[in-house]
Amino acid sequence: MNSLVSRARWLASLLAAGALLLTGTGAAVADQDLTQEPVPGVENLTPLPAAQYARAPLISADGTTAYVGAIEATGTKLYVVDTQTGEVTADVPTSTGRWAGPMVFGARGSLVYLVTEGTLNVIDTATDTLRASIPVPDQPRPPGTRPGSLSRMAISPDGATIYLDQSGPHDNGPSVGPPRLLVFSTARHAFTAAVPLPGESPRDIVVRPNGRDVYVSGDVGLVHLTTSAGVPKVVRTIAATGFADELALTPDGRRLYALSKPDGRAAVVDLTRDDVLTTIDFRSDFSPVLSPAVSADGTRLHVLVDDHRTAPKVLSYDTATHTQVTDETVTDFAVERASGLTVGPDGETFYLTGTNYVDDPGVHLQIVSF
User: Across-strand partners of 161?
Assistant: First the structure.
C-alpha cells in the first residue's frame, strides 16, 4: 500500500479519535499514544511452537507486538510475537484446558484479558506473565448438565467493564437454559452481574464508543442492550439481520456489520435507528467467511475467506457503496488454512493465523503488507 495513503488513513483515524475525546464519548482513546504513527509489521511467517490452533491476534497500539491465544496438547498459551523481527519473544501458559477464546486489551495496553475454559486470565504485557486467573461464575443449571460455552467478549471504551457472553447449560446436546451476558469490573477484578439474553446461541459482542450501547449477535439476530442504568438491560432484538455470527463496528460507532458465516453475507445495520440498511453478499459459494474488520478510517470492510480447498484470501469492500474493491483482494498467503485475521493499527498490515499441513507443518502467524 502506498505510504502516503497509509499516513492519510492514520491521520483520519487520529482526527476521529480526537473528536471522540472532545465529545466525551471516547475515553478509551486516551489510553493510547496518539502522538506516534503505528509502525507496519514486517512480512514474516512465524511458527508458533507446539500450537495446534490459534485465534486471531491482538496487535499493540504502536504496531510492534502481536499477542496470539493458542491451544496446545498440554493446555493453552498466549504467544508474544515481535512484529518487526517475526520472533516469538515469550509464551505465557494460561490453563490446562483445551480451549482458548477471545482476547481484549485493558489498562492502556498494559494488560491482555484472555478467556480459557471457565476462566478469565489477566496477562501483564510489561513482564509477559500471568497476573491472575479468575473463575467465571457458574450458571443456574439442571443436575448433570455442563456450563455453556463462552463465545466472545468486549471492553467498554473507558476500560472499566468487560462483557462476556455465554450460551445456556447443556448435556452435550442443545442448550437446556437461557444464555447470559456476564459483566466484569476491571477495577474490582470481579464479575458483578449476569443478564439473561434471548435466544440460545450468543456469538459476538461490540460496544459503541458512547459506552452505553452493547450489541450481542446470535441465533435470534442482533440484541441491543443499554448500560445507562448500570446493569445492562435488553432494549430490543433486531431480527432482520438473521442469524449473526461475528461483528465489526465502524470507528464512529454508527454502523455495524453483522456477519453470517454459513450464508456468506453481512447485514449492514444503522445503529442510530437499529435498522438493517442492506446486505452484502460475499459470493463465497458456501466457503467459510470470518474475521470481519473495518479499517481505521472507516472506508473499507475486510473479510477472510477460506474454502478449505485453495489458499485463503481477504476481500475488501467499499463501506460507502458496499461493493467489492477487486483490485484490493489479497491472496497467495503462505498458510494453507486460516483461522483468524486482524488488521494492524497502521492500516496497511494483515496479521493472519493459520495452519500448514504439507510444507512447514504447524500453526503460524503470518504478517502481510497490503
Answer: 185
DSSP letter at 296?
T
Instruction: Give the pairing of strands 247-249 and 255-260.
Output: antiparallel
How many Cβ atoms from other residues are within 10 Å of residue 319's Cβ? Answer: 19
Q: Model confidence at 309, in pLDDT bands (50, 70, 90)? A: confident
d(CA 248, CA 154): 12
If residue 11 lies in a helix (H) or strand (E), which one and from where to where? helix 3-23
Pairing of strands 100-106, 247-249: unpaired
Query: In residues, how long is the chain?
Result: 370
Q: Is the dihedral of CA 46, 52, 56, 59 positive or negative?
A: negative
Residue type, 301: L
Closest CA to 351 of 124, 91, 79, 90: 79
What ranges make up the beta strands (E) of 98-178?
100-106, 111-116, 119-124, 129-135, 150-155, 161-166
Q: How crowded is the C-beta side of 13, counted as CA atoms within 13 Å? A: 28
Compare 340 and 359 and report the one with higher pLDDT: 340
Is the distance from CB of 139 to CB of 148 less than 8 angstroms?
A: yes
Q: How far is Cα of residue 195 from the mean position of the Cα atoms in its chain?
A: 21
Residues with Cβ < 8 Å from 54, sequence gap 6 or more?
Answer: 48, 68, 69, 70, 71, 79, 339, 340, 353, 354, 363, 365
In what order do the strands lie in the sheet containing 129-135? 100-106, 111-116, 119-124, 129-135
DSSP 285: T
Q: Exposed, middle or buried: residue 98 (CB in 10 Å: 0-12, 13-18, 19+)?
A: middle
pLDDT digits (tens, 9 = 90+) for 236-247: 999 999 999 999
The grid coordinates listed for 365 are 502467524
Give the integer Cα–Cα distance in Å for 6 and 39. Answer: 10
> What pTM, to 2 d.p., does this model score?
0.89
Name the range with the highest mean pLDDT among 32-46, 122-136, 249-263.
122-136
Residue 333, classified by CB atoms within 10 Å of its CB into exposed (0-12), middle (13-18) or buried (19+), is buried
| Number of other CB atoms surrounding residue 247 within 10 Å | 23
Question: In terms of Cα–Cα distance, which of 158, 153, 160, 52 is closest to 103?
Answer: 153
Closest CA to 138 of 176, 175, 180: 180
